[in-house]
Design a protein that fits this description.
The complex is a heterodimer of chains A (865) and B (649).
Chain A (H helix, E strand, L loop, with lengths): L5 E7 L10 E6 L2 E5 L4 E6 L4 E7 L4 E7 L4 E6 L3 E5 H12 L7 E4 L5 E3 L4 E7 L2 E8 L2 E8 L10 E9 L8 H6 L6 E7 L2 H4 L4 H5 L5 E4 L1 H8 L1 H5 L4 E5 L4 E6 L8 E5 L4 E9 L5 E8 L3 E8 L9 E8 L6 E4 L3 E5 L4 E5 L1 H9 L3 H13 L2 E2 L5 E9 L5 E7 L3 E7 L4 H5 L4 H55 L8 E12 L2 E12 L9 E9 L13 E6 L8 E10 L7 E10 H5 L1 H7 L7 E11 L6 E2 L2 H10 L4 H17 L6 H6 L6 E8 H14 L5 H4 L1 H14 L5 E3 L12 E5 L5 E11 L8 E10 L2 H21 L8 H27 L4 H17 L3 E2 L1
Parallel strand pairs in A: 5-9, 15-16, 31-40, 39-44
Antiparallel strand pairs in A: 1-30, 2-3, 3-4, 4-5, 6-7, 7-8, 8-10, 11-12, 12-13, 13-14, 15-17, 17-18, 18-19, 20-21, 21-22, 22-23, 24-25, 25-26, 26-27, 28-29, 29-30, 31-32, 32-35, 33-34, 33-36, 36-37, 38-41, 39-43, 41-42, 42-43
Chain B lengths: L1 H28 L4 H23 L5 H20 L3 H18 L9 H12 L5 H17 L3 H6 L1 H13 L10 H4 L9 H23 L2 H11 L6 H17 L3 H14 L4 H14 L2 H15 L6 H5 L6 H4 L3 H6 L5 H14 L3 H16 L4 H13 E2 L8 E2 L14 H14 L3 H15 L7 E3 L5 H4 L11 H21 L3 H15 L2 E3 L10 H7 L2 H23 L3 H14 L4 H13 L3 H13 L24 H13 L1
Parallel strand pairs in B: 3-4
Antiparallel strand pairs in B: 1-2
Helix pairs in contact in B: 1-2, 1-3, 2-3, 3-4, 3-6, 4-5, 4-6, 5-6, 6-10, 8-10, 10-11, 10-12, 11-12, 12-13, 12-14, 13-14, 14-15, 15-19, 19-20, 20-22, 22-23, 22-25, 23-25, 25-26, 25-28, 26-28, 28-29, 28-30, 29-30, 30-31, 31-32
The chains are: A alpha+beta (865), B mainly alpha (649).
Chain lengths: 865, 649
């Protein structure tokens, strides 16, 4: 378990972004030099903890190297290489500190400091007195050697060698990157054979430049990689990593040596270094890292394959993430992916080596070590330098963040078990606090994740239900089950209520869920009420009303009840269609804000499953005027006594007027233009047959049905209360006791009407075989009421007959009689209609004519048998 | 009417300004580095090209074709100076076609020769003619730079007429002819007269080199001698002398060749190639003293700082080196590096008996190799240009090292150099130094010596061309042989110091290493005569056998000194088996036999040894594999006396 890193921001400098090579140069006492790819180089003093000087170069800086002995730095710009004497700088610095200690001194580097006029130098390296520049010329990489003068005063830098390597354009994997980063950096480092110092202590310059780009490699590995000759010549070897992925080397002092390719990473090389330093100070492992995370470790494999001699083992592997920058200390490789700072412990492999004999396993474990870099949780680091290990075992790194901050990153000691025993109590408590807060963070994250997973599960479950229910309902529509047997069904009841002296009709919807599924959140019952005939609305637009009732967990077996106002008395157009459907919407399931945020188009997308479509007709909406009800109203509500008496009066008058039969003669004798009537004839036999099963189920006696009076009553009862298509007239107060076959009622528009059911005989009066017929007669002064009620009665009888078994009664004669008469009437009506349309008459006259025809049609129905 | 003239004026003004700027930069360019002048040249060429684009934007017309052709000339000079030959050639082709359009002819060919002939003909005697000649000059330069000498031969008459014209001063902008007309003519980056002169001599040199390469030495000689009279820079004249010398050397007239080389050196004291060639001739003549002298001179000349470069480069943009890039010429001008010259010198000294001097040179060489600043590398730059060929992935696979003449001594590989130096030190009785060098070799190589090595069927390249091999494939056999040779030398050192026990130890180590080598071809009998071995099998096998013979023989000798005669006899006999040619082993074998009292056998052994008078090519053996001239010696005269005595008794 790793502790946490402490990041301390030391300085902030203006900085455009990580498009260039950022480099930190240490080793000048307490001064740290930072170049950020702009024209500026910042000199940061660790002692004063601030930027003391800013060096202004004439062009963007691409690389920076230093000679600590002579206090010189070499800066590669676009226009050439400049040499800056830091001693002079420091001196200047101290003198200027007196007057302005707060703001950093700005120092312009003039053209006089230009020592090498090569342009577009991408990398620099100083090996002893030799300055190397690497640049790309047309089709080749050019490594040029310059001799630096012994005296710092002299500026002549004599070129004494150059090496070419053709550019390879085959590596295109970083093409996208190359657009983003205009100049991809190259890496130049110097490798010394480990025994050089020991054997020739006079070679002081090599020791003095032991910096971040100089490494001492174990002699055997050195020889294996770079040859015996380089080792014999005590030649330092220049390693250069190119953007095309090649890792080239050049023994510097070997005559006739050339740039040769050691390895190819096949992605831009962004770091080369050596690590796993032994007690003798020699690194045992050469590491090169590519921009996309490919890392090659080069070690000596002592148990070589043939002959038992040592060979150099190249272990390639991939570490996660892009490698932005890296640095090395004695055993670890630290690199930044931008999102994180990672540590790769390279020494593990060598530990394993000692315990195991076989070489393959060693390389395997090394590769495994590559797979698991440990995260240090520092993000946006774009340059790293100067790893230092304190006595306590902490590693301190110097980093530059993408935001242009110079940071000191303190990494905790490698192993907890080492440190914990010796830690002082304050540190223990701090680390405990750290751990606790870390645990808290983890808990929080875990709970968040848990809820997310839970909600997702829930969501999936709901979706599953939704799909099941949809299938269920779809199956219903195809199989056409009777409504009673549907797993999810709804039926309605109409009821009149009186509120604030205003009668209003309300429809109560009962949804019964007998399916095995719970109707949960996300499901909505949508009921659309629209008039059956649209033309009745004045403006012609559909006056449909939508009601929707979202469910909250309707369990199986439960019933959902919703009451919806259809109309106040007088302003409703009956009959009306009520269609109800179940709607499942994703949006209500996900929650509004999520949907709005992520799926703008999803809001309309919901599953709509039609349940049933019903018609609420006049019969459902009738308000029966039972004597008891009227009496109650009168007694209970004396304030409305006057109005009621008027209405009673009116209705009595209507009653009186409606005392006529459908006989043509009678109606002609008492012509009352306000009085309209319509009638329906049904063969009483059919009525008897159809009502029988009903009655039997109701445990009623069959005797009563024999009686024609009873038959009429039961038909009336059936008409008024029957549950057709799931719509039922609700009970109006107490159950109406139908004593007579005449019902006075008040329609939804307030019009009084009379419904009479009686038995008549139809047929030629002289004929013997009279057919027993039941006539249902509707009378009202309101034409709309008559029409509506007639429609409703017809519908009822239709459904009655549909349910009845077909009777093959020979009623041909009656039919023929009826047909003949009907034909006659039709002829008359035809002539009347054509007359009405043919003649030039006023619209009023025409309407009247049509009305007359209509009335006749209504009054002389065909006998339904 | 107004506008075209003003445009024309504007353009020609622009051109003149650019030319002036160019000339200023060139004048200043001597001081600044090569890179800088290159970048200014780049700038110039792009500016000229821009201007040319503007001018060529309008259809060709007589009025401004003069200017146009001048700008084409300037642009092409800049392009050529940057080695952008194809761009320059394209421009020239376009320009010729436009000239043809102006004169009303139609060019329907892509063959440049036909195009040029047509162009020159159509330009005829019009005012354009001199300007077309400018362009022809440039075409000439391009062909020369691209080594397309046959094209130049094809248009020889046109070229010669061009030369005449230029010498008359037509295109020079000189005051002699029609000053009024030409005073307004646009300026040129490089004067035509100088260009033609340069082209003439460079063509002669290139053609001479080509002919020499083809073996037509006498033909080349006359051409070159004619060319040496031309006016040109010293360096170029020196080249003509040098090439004449080479021709003469080729024609087997070494003394005359030496004269030519001498003249070349007199003309241009920097002409190291002449010095080098003279050295080769001395070597050929067997004049070792003169050869050593020449090597010494050559080395000191090569060590001089390269202050002379600008002289060759001149101040005009087209440098002779650009025009003289033919392969055959560069091969002729090749000079080995200072280090290899020094090595040759050292080796020659040691081999010719001037051991002390040779040792000094060896030590100088080692010091130079270890020194921080390597002047040696500098010379490499020049040769690099020519000799390096790269494979696609950049690993150097094929390097044309100076193999022009077999005599050119290439630096041996580092360990061999150490061993040779060690051997030389031993010759001068400095065993301690020798041992130190050997220690170094052993410490470097021993770790890498494998447990077992299989010496494959002879591959000629194994020893000789190993430098080019990649590091991973570095020859294990070579590694082993080096280590063994180092032990052998150490053994010799101890023998020299009469520390016989130590000597035996080191010889034993050497033998132990050598027996790790397994010969792959089992049928092959290693005991067959050494001369055959030399031919059939590579250097490695030869060295192996020789080393086996030496180490065994010398262990035997050491045992003899320690009075362990049985072991001595065994070793000496084994040595004779491994390497029958080695006389020392034979003589000592006899001696041991003699001491063991097997006098007749001893006599037979001696007789047999003396009969082997092959005395094989000791010269070709590495220094460290030669018989150490120290240690106990047997006097043949005394041995013969003994035999006589034996015969008497």
């Amino acid at each position: 378990m790793e502790g946490r890193c402490a990041v301390e921001t030391w300085a902030q400098f203006g900085f455009s972004g990580g498009s260039y090579k950022v480099k930190i140069l240490c080793g000048f006492g307490t001064d740290v030099l930072i170049c950020t790819g702009t024209e500026e180089i910042y000199v940061f003093s660790k002692r004063e903890r601030k930027i003391t000087t800013v060096l202004l170069l004439p062009a963007a800086v691409s690389d920076l190297v230093g000679n600590q002995d002579k206090h010189l730095i070499y800066v590669a710009c676009r226009s050439g290489v400049y040499r800056v004497n830091l001693q002079f700088l420091l001196h200047r610095d101290q003198s200027s500190q007196a007057d302005a200690s707060s703001s950093p001194a700005e120092l312009k580097i003039s053209q006089e400091c230009l020592v090498v006029g090569a342009d577009e130098v991408s990398s620099l390296l100083l090996v002893g007195s030799v300055l190397l520049t690497l640049c790309q010329r047309d089709a080749s990489w050019l490594l040029t050697l310059y001799k630096t003068p012994k005296q710092t005063a002299s500026t002549s830098h004599e070129e004494f060698g150059s090496f070419h390597l053709p550019v390879v354009s085959a590596v295109d994997c970083g093409a996208a990157e190359s657009n983003r980063r205009p100049r991809k950096g190259s890496v130049l480092i110097c490798i010394h054979s480990g025994d050089v110092e020991a054997s020739s202590p006079s070679n002081a310059s090599a020791e003095s430049t032991v910096a971040q780009d100089h490494f001492h490699l174990e002699p055997l590995l050195f020889k294996l990689l770079f040859g015996v000759e380089a080792a014999l010549a005590k030649s330092p070897v220049i390693l250069c990593g190119l953007p095309d992925g090649r890792l080239c080397f050049l023994p510097l002092r070997l005559p006739g040596s050339r740039l040769r390719v050691l390895h190819s990473l096949e992605q831009p090389v962004c770091f080369v270094g050596a690590s796993v330093v032994t007690e003798t100070g020699h690194a045992q492992c050469l590491v090169a890292a590519g921009e996309q995370g490919r890392v090659v470790l080069i070690k000596t494999d002592k148990a070589g394959s043939e002959g038992g001699s040592a060979v150099a083992a190249f272990t390639e592997g991939c570490v996660p993430g892009p490698v932005w920058c890296g640095c090395m200390d004695k055993s670890c490789f630290y690199y930044s992916t931008g999102a994180d700072l990672l540590r790769l412990d390279l020494s593990e492999g060598s530990f394993v080596r000692e315990s195991k004999e076989r070489g393959e396993e060693t390389s395997g474990t090394t590769a495994a070590a590559l797979q698991s870099p440990s995260s240090l949780n520092v993000c946006r680091v774009i340059a790293l330098a100067e790893p230092a290990r304190s006595t306590a075992g902490d590693v301190q790194l110097l980093g530059v963040s993408a935001r242009g901050q110079l940071q000191r990153i303190c990494l905790p000691a490698g192993r907890v078990d080492e440190g914990s025993s010796k830690l002082p109590s304050t540190q223990v408590s701090r680390s405990v606090r750290d751990l606790l807060s870390a645990i808290g963070d983890v808990c929080e994250r875990a709970s968040v994740l848990k809820t997310v997973i839970k909600s997702k599960n829930q969501f999936l479950r709901l979706l599953n239900h939704a799909i099941s229910i949809s299938f269920l309902l779809m199956a219903d529509t195809t199989t056409d089950l009777p409504i009673k047997e549907k797993p999810i069904r709804c039926h309605f009841e109409t009821s009149w209520s009186r509120l604030l002296q205003k009668d209003s009709l309300s429809l109560v919807c009962f949804l019964h869920n007998s399916s095995p599924f719970v109707l949960e959140r996300g499901w909505t019952l949508s009921i659309t009420v629209s008039p059956l005939s649209y033309s009745s609305s004045p403006a012609g637009e559909s006056s449909s009303t939508n009601f929707s009732f979202p469910f909250h967990d309707l369990c199986p077996g439960q019933t959902f009840e919703a009451s919806l106002p259809i109309a106040a008395a007088g302003d409703a157009s009956f009959p009306m269609t009520v269609s109800c459907s179940l709607i499942f919407s994703l949006s209500s399931l996900l929650g509004e804000e999520e949907v709005a945020a992520s799926f703008a188009g999803l809001q309309s997308s919901c599953i709509s499953l039609p349940l049933s479509t019903l018609t609420v007709d006049w019969l459902h909406a009738l308000q029966l005027n039972s004597p008891t009800a009227t009496h109650k109203m009168a007694t209970v509500q004396p304030s409305s006594a006057a109005a009621d008496s008027i209405r009673t009066f009116l209705s009595s008058r209507q009653l009186r007027c409606s005392g006529r039969t459908n006989r043509g003669g009678e109606s002609a004798a008492k012509p009352e233009p306000e009085k309209y009537s319509a009638s329906v004839w049904v063969s009483s036999e059919i009525v008897r047959d159809t009502l029988k099963p009903k009655k039997s189920s109701n445990l009623d006696t069959k005797e009563s049905i024999r009686d024609p009076e009873d038959l009429c009553l039961s038909l009336l009862e059936r008409l008024l209360s029957e549950d057709t298509e799931g719509v039922k007239m609700g009970c109006q107060g107490d159950k109406i006791a139908l004593s007579t076959s005449v019902v006075h009622a008040c329609g939804p528009n307030g019009a009084a009407m009379k419904l009479t059911v009686k038995e008549i005989n139809v047929g030629e009066e002289e004929s013997t075989d009279k057919e027993a017929t039941i006539e249902v007669q509707i009378e009202s002064s309101s034409l709309a009421a008559v029409c509506g009620l007639h429609h409703a009665v017809l519908r009822r009888i239709q459904t009655l007959l549909q349910s009845a078994t077909e009777k093959a009664a020979s009623t041909k004669n009656v039919q023929i009689l009826g047909l003949r008469r009907a034909l006659q009437r039709a002829e008359i009506q035809q002539s009347q209609i054509s007359g009405a349309f043919g003649e030039v008459v006023s619209t009023v006259q025409r309407d009247r004519l049509l009305l007359t025809v209509y009335q006749e049609l209504r009054q002389n129905p065909l006998l339904i048998v | 009417m107004y506008q075209p003239t003003s445009l024309l004026e504007k353009w020609s003004q622009e051109n003149n300004e650019l030319v002036n700027k160019c000339k200023q930069q060139e004048a200043a360019g001597g001081a600044v580095s090569r890179d800088h002048s290159q970048s200014s040249l780049r700038w110039c060429s792009s500016e000229f090209h821009k201007l040319l684009r503007k001018i060529q934007g309008i259809p060709p017309h007589v009025d401004h074709s003069q200017l146009e052709l001048a700008v084409v000339y300037n642009t092409c000079v800049c392009f050529t100076a940057q080695s952008q030959f194809s761009e320059a050639e394209l421009l020239l082709k376009e320009a010729t076609e436009r000239v043809l359009q102006v004169t009303g002819n139609n060019a329907d060919t892509s063959d440049p020769l036909v195009l040029w002939r047509a162009g020159l003909k159509s330009a005829g005697n019009t005012a354009l003619h001199p300007h077309v000649l400018y362009l022809l000059c440039l075409q000439w330069a391009l062909w020369l730079a691209k080594c397309q000498l046959e094209n130049i031969w094809e248009l020889q008459e046109q070229m010669s007429s061009l030369c005449e014209l230029v010498c008359d001063g037509v295109g020079d902008g000189s005051p002699s002819e029609a000053k009024g007309r030409l005073s307004k003519s646009p300026l040129l980056v490089m004067e035509l007269k100088r260009l033609t002169e340069l082209l003439q001599i460079c063509t002669s040199i290139a053609q001479g080199a080509e002919k020499l390469n083809e073996g037509r030495s006498s033909e080349a000689l006359s051409d070159l001698q004619a060319a040496s009279a031309l006016s040109a820079t010293r360096a170029l004249v020196a080249y003509t002398h040098l090439l004449s010398g080479s021709c003469l050397a080729h024609m087997n007239r070494p003394q005359m060749a030496l004269q030519c080389y001498k003249r070349a050196l007199e003309t241009d004291s920097r002409c190291v190639c002449a010095l080098y060639r003279s050295m080769l001739i001395y070597r050929q003549l067997g004049n070792t003293q003169a050869e050593i002298q020449a090597l010494r001179l050559l080395h000191s000349t090569l060590m001089l700082p390269p202050a002379t470069e600008p002289v060759l480069g001149g101040i005009h943009p087209l440098s002779p080196s650009l025009l003289l890039s033919s392969h055959s010429l560069s091969r002729l001008l090749l000079v080995p590096s200072a280090l290899s010259v020094l090595y040759s010198l050292a080796l020659k000294c040691v081999l010719s008996g001037r051991v002390t001097e040779g040792v000094e040179h060896y030590l100088d060489l080692l010091a130079a190799l270890h020194s921080e600043d390597q002047h040696a590398v500098r010379v490499k730059i020049i040769t690099n240009k020519i000799t390096i060929q790269f494979s696609l992935m950049g690993s150097v696979t094929c390097i044309c090292l100076p193999q022009v003449d077999a005599e050119v001594s290439v630096l041996p590989r580092m360990p061999e150099l150490y061993l040779e130096a060690g051997a030389a030190l031993l010759f001068t009785r400095r065993p301690a130094d020798c041992m130190a060098l050997c220690n170094e070799v052993i410490s470097t190589t021993l770790e890498l010596v494998p447990e077992k090595v299989v010496l494959e069927e002879p591959d000629e390249g194994i020893g000789g061309d190993a430098r080019g091999l990649s590091v991973e494939g570095e020859d294990k056999v070579a590694m082993l042989l080096w280590a063994a040779a180092a032990y052998l030398l150490q053994g010799h050192c101890h023998a020299h110091l009469k520390d016989w026990k130590q000597a035996v130890t080191h010889y034993t180590r050497c033998i132990n290493l050598l027996v790790k080598v397994h010969l792959k071809n089992r049928d092959f009998q290693p005991q067959i005569p050494a001369a055959d071995v030399n031919v059939k099998h590579g250097k490695d096998l030869c060295a192996l056998q020789r080393m086996k013979g030496l180490s065994l023989a010398w262990r035997g000798i050491s045992f003899t000194q320690m009075d362990q005669l049985r072991e001595a006899l065994r070793d000496l006999q084994l040595s004779l088996q491994a390497f029958p040619d080695y006389t020392g082993a034979g003589l000592w074998c006899g001696e041991v036999l003699w001491r063991l009292g097997r006098k007749h056998e001893a006599a037979a052994c001696w007789e047999k040894t003396w009969s082997l008078t092959t005395q094989t090519s000791v010269e070709k053996l590495p220094l460290y594999l030669q018989d150490p001239q120290s240690g106990p010696l047997l006097d043949s005269v005394e041995l013969r006396l003994r035999i006589q005595e034996l015969g008497l008794t």
